[in-house]
Design brief:
The chain is mainly beta. Helix content is 4%, strand content 49%. Strands 24, 25, 27, 32, 33, 34 and 36 form a seven-stranded antiparallel beta sheet that branches. The structure holds beta-D-fructofuranose. Beta-D-fructofuranose binds at residues 51-52, 68, 79, 111-112, 128, 178-179, 233-234, 301.
Length: 517
């Protein structure tokens, strides 16, 4: 039954005019761009700052990626929605900026949100409108509400704003109230978004709707057990089947406030997941701890969507958490991760691997087979690896090295990033200690006892001009980082420290651009 509820529009600016100004802003920054670290095969804006992936969807024959965009600078600022699209998830096309703040509720930004196709075939966008309470800045708190927009054309190049659909009960909320994600279950539409409760706990609130416009509060779907966590940004909630065909629900969120503990929570805020069960009318029942989705210094705000063939695909934002951020002087700042397929493995845990479409970016294949690296040997694989994919299998049982793997972005001045295995911690490490600019430090991901017992370690490494993404044992873990190599050739080397490395397999593929440079 259709409802009579109608969202209302309260324009304070002309949207078309704001969009044109924003295009000019991006254009002006793009004209100054330095491409030394600008991605060849990751999504970034032509110019300006980007953060979270938004509105991910497949619609009428094209894949769409929207993202948070500040068109007038290379730091976070008044948020817009940028847009790119693709027919094949291989080559991408820039689309007009999709949304600029133009309504009363959005005075200070159109924030993150998701997209979903209704039963009527209409593509709808659910997003957050942000207003500073004091009218100036965030120091006086924020007033955030959920909004609706619709695609006007088949290519979603023009969006029609419809207005507010969920107001904020401000007495129950400590000002954070954002990032709606919508899906359909058993004939009912559900919407979940992140909240900081009045007592500063990170919560997810669930709503339901019959008509996608009138939403009724359902319940608090989840409260983060970590009392330090005061807000869960960019929640995602979706079912996946185990290899044994059992349904599990995956809760993904970007938690603010968690304190570092050992290897965990090393970033200012941390994107994580839990596996559990859920039925409409119930709270989410977690069956695991909160775990990181990616162990790198630069991973945040992931969002997933369902592809027509049933794959669950996820993009994250490579967030430059810690200054200095050298790319912000280059006319642009920020890129998304590769699209990753998310699935439950035989071990019952979540895996993320780049979607198979990425293989179509390979320009050539170089199979170097197996080899041995002698104790303390360093061997050049490529003189200049600017955009390269490397697959290697290390035979851990036969290797004696304390650390072994790759030196990536190795330049003449001696800077590089180490990507490899550390036999003392028995973890995979990405170490930026030897870089000449940007944030230093290392991150590492664990290997389970089963992985170690197998005696083999598979590393799949994607090198772009300014980033490195590492996938371990078919996406069992991932580590994503930025790096800002020095001028000159960026060589790729094998390295083995204090012992030898037995490589069972080594394959390399040069990667071509995705059409956004
Ligand atoms: C996450 C986030 C979201 C918000 C958006 C604003 O990075 O803070 O919670 O909607 O970015 O740009």
């Amino acid at each position: 039954m259709g409802s009579t509820y109608e969202p209302a529009l309260h324009p304070v600016k002309n949207h078309q005019v704001e969009l044109s100004k924003a295009e000019a802003g991006v254009h002006a920054l793009a004209a100054t761009r330095n491409d030394r670290w600008y991605p060849k095969y990751h999504i970034a804006s032509d110019g300006g700052w980007i953060n979270d992936p938004n509105g991910l969807c497949y619609y009428r024959g094209r894949w769409h990626v929207f993202y948070q965009l500040h068109p007038y600078g290379t730091q976070w600022g008044p948020m817009h929605w940028g847009h790119v699209s693709s027919a094949d998830m291989v080559t991408w096309r820039r689309e007009p900026i999709a949304m600029a703040p133009s309504l009363e509720e959005e005075r200070n930004g159109v924030y993150s949100g998701s997209a979903v196709v209704g039963d009527d075939g209409k593509l709808r966008f659910y997003y957050t409108a942000n207003r500073w309470v004091n009218g100036k800045d965030r120091s006086g708190g924020q007033w955030q509400v959920q909004m609706l927009a619709e695609a006007v054309d088949d290519d979603a190049r023009e969006l029609l704003k419809r207005g507010m659909i969920i107001d904020c009960p401000r007495e129950k909320v400590d000002s954070h109230f954002r990032d709606p994600k919508v899906w359909k279950q058993d004939g009912v539409w559900y919407l979940v978004h992140g909240v900081s409760s009045a007592d500063k706990r990170g919560q997810l609130w669930l709503y339901h709707s019959q008509d996608m416009e009138e939403w009724t509060f359902d319940q608090v779907l989840f409260e983060c057990p970590d009392e330090d966590v005061f807000m869960l940004e960019c929640p995602d909630f979706f079912p996946l089947k185990t290899p044994g065909d059992q349904e599990k629900w995956i809760m993904v969120c970007s938690a603010m406030g968690a304190q570092p503990k050992g290897y965990m929570n090393r970033n200012t805020s941390n994107a994580c997941y839990m596996i559990g069960s859920w039925k409409p009318g119930e709270r989410f029942q977690p069956e695991t701890e909160l775990k990181p989705l990616d162990w790198g210094q630069n991973y945040y705000a992931p969002q997933s969507f369902l592809a027509p063939d049933g794959r669950r695909i996820m993009y994250g934002w490579m967030r430059p958490f810690t200054p200095p951020i050298p790319m912000e002087r280059d006319g642009w700042c920020g890129q998304l991760t590769l699209p990753r397929e998310v699935f439950l493995g035989d071990d019952g845990d979540l895996h993320t691997v780049p979607v198979e479409e990425i293989d179509h970016l390979r320009i050539n294949d170089n199979d170097l087979g197996g080899s041995t690296l002698a104790t303390n040997e360093e061997r050049i694989l490529l003189d200049d690896a600017e955009a390269e994919e490397v697959e290697l299998t290390i035979d851990l049982k036969r290797s004696t090295a304390e650390r072994c793997g790759l030196k990536v972005h190795a330049t003449e001045d001696g800077s590089f990033v180490f990507v490899g295995y550390d036999d003392q911690s028995r973890r995979v490490v990405v170490d930026r200690m030897a870089v000449s600019r940007g944030d230093r430090g290392y991150r590492s991901a664990p290997l389970t006892s089963e992985e170690l017992a197998s005696g083999k370690l598979d590393l799949h490494v994607y090198i772009d001009r300014g980033s490195i993404e590492v996938f371990i044992n078919n996406g069992r873990q991932a580590i994503s980082v930025y790096n800002y190599p020095s001028a000159g050739l960026r060589s790729l080397k094998l390295v083995s420290e204090s012992g030898d490395m037995q490589l069972e397999r080594l394959q390399m593929h040069q990667i071509r651009g995705i059409g956004l440079e």
